[in-house]
Amino acid sequence: MSSTPGNPLASALFMSWRRVEHSLMTLTALIAQLDWLAQPAIAFVVSRAALFTAGIVGDVLLPTEEGHWVADPNSTFLSLWAKWDSQWYVQIARDGYWFQPLRQSNVAFFPLYPLAMRLLAPLVGENLVLAGFLISNAAFLLALIFLYRLTELELADRASARRTVFYLALFPTAFFFSAVYTESLFLLLSVATMYFARRQYWLAAALTGMLASATRNLGIVLWALVTWEWLRRHGWSLQGTMRRQTWSLLLRDVKAHWTELVIIAAIPLGLLLYMAFLEINFDRPLAFIEVQAAWGRQNIGPGAVLARELSALADFQLNRGSLNRLLNLSFALIALAMTPFIWRRLGEGYAVYTLVLILVPLFSSVASVMRYVLPLFPTFILLGWWGRRPTLDQFLTAGFAVGLGVLTTVFANWYFVA
């Protein structure tokens, strides 16, 4: 549309259209800049709305096993998300730690999550269950944001980052991210640690890593992952280990940047402080390991565990226990099979991290592996990359969503999932 001095109406319309066009372009640019916030928020809202609905519907329509702990007598909704191990976290937040040899004791559960519950409780009417629920959901939303940023950093592809956060949010056991469990907090701290390390914010990485190691014992593995990233940033690689120049350059960088390594070395402090607490109070710094036997966990090695589970498939029967066992074994094998592809696409550090976090639980059992795979964020980044194929993207999205709905209703009715 053109305008002339003799056509004031056309000129006014043209100027109005230009202002609208400019506003639309500005809004589009702003939305693109905030994609790192918008996509995780959408994934969070969509997935939480779906699983909250599934939990409520399942609680109403399906029979619930009797005789279980009621987390909050005044809120059926909150009680849906506080099952099984949630009791231990509530107990620690309310009464503190206790330890009895050869018996299930709450020292098996690390302190950061129940401590956060205790600190938040006064702000929510001393309701520890509500405090845990809020912490889990807030941590999960933040974890999705950090995961989006990390995926975008690793793959340089926003579409893959979007798929990654949606796959994680819709994963069949992703209801644990909203339950009174440590999954969401540990995921947040782990992903944030690696994001900060990739940006070379070593102090921030050390702080979040230290908090992760106070959330779970395997948080200490982040020390190795962040150190590996530091080495990579300074030119060290597995391929160069046989070259003398690689080591001489590394020695030069260690001398020049030794303070960064000292900062990174703070990551295990979360675990070490908890061990010191156990030593002072119970004279057992490794009490959290000792009590594992009371849950029937005996370290026989991943090979023996997988061989036992595979042989058990010969006597497979279509019942709840066998299906649970099959699902856990399947998730374990899939996670193990993905590690070479993680190595190839994301690097050896991520692959080793994934391998360690899946192998350690397999020293004793495949039980709960469906939950243990949730913090394995490199696997979801890889899935986000693979999801470039529309058929696979549709399959994963639909399959995960259906699985999430089914397992959420099962969990909400006190049937053990993981």
**What's the pLDDT, averaged over the residues?**
89
Helix content: 55-70%
* Approximate strand percentage: under 5%
Q: Mind describing the biggest β-sheet?
A: none
Q: From the alpha-carbon coordinates, what is the Rg to the nearest angstrom?
A: 25 Å
Structural class comes to mainly alpha
SSE string: HHHHHHHHHHHHHHHHHHHH
What sort of overall outline do the alpha carbons produce when their principal axes are compared? Answer: globular
Stretches where pLDDT is under 50 for at least 5 consecutive residues are none
User: Count of helical segments?
Assistant: 20
* Beta strands, count: 0
Q: Tally the structural domains.
A: 1
Taking the alpha carbons of the first and last residues, their distance comes to 65 Å
Describe the structure.
The protein is an all-alpha fold and about 425 residues long. The chain has one domain (about 25-410). The protein is about 70% helix and about 0% strand. The protein is built from 20 helices and no strands. It has helices at about 10-35, 35-60, 75-80, 85-95, 110-120, 130-155, 160-170, 185-200, 200-215, 220-235, 245-255, 260-265, 270-280, 285-290, 300-310, 320-345, 350-360, 370, 375-385, 390-410. The mean pLDDT is about 90.
Can you give keywords for this protein?
418 residues; mainly alpha; 20 helices
Topology, please?
Layout: H1 8-33, H2 35-61, H3 76-80, H4 86-95, H5 112-120, H6 128-155, H7 158-170, H8 183-198, H9 202-213, H10 221-233, H11 244-256, H12 258-264, H13 269-282, H14 287-290, H15 302-312, H16 320-346, H17 348-359, H18 369-372, H19 377-386, H20 390-412
Helix pairs in contact: 2-6, 2-7, 2-20, 4-5, 5-6, 6-7, 6-8, 7-19, 7-20, 8-9, 8-10, 9-10, 10-17, 16-17
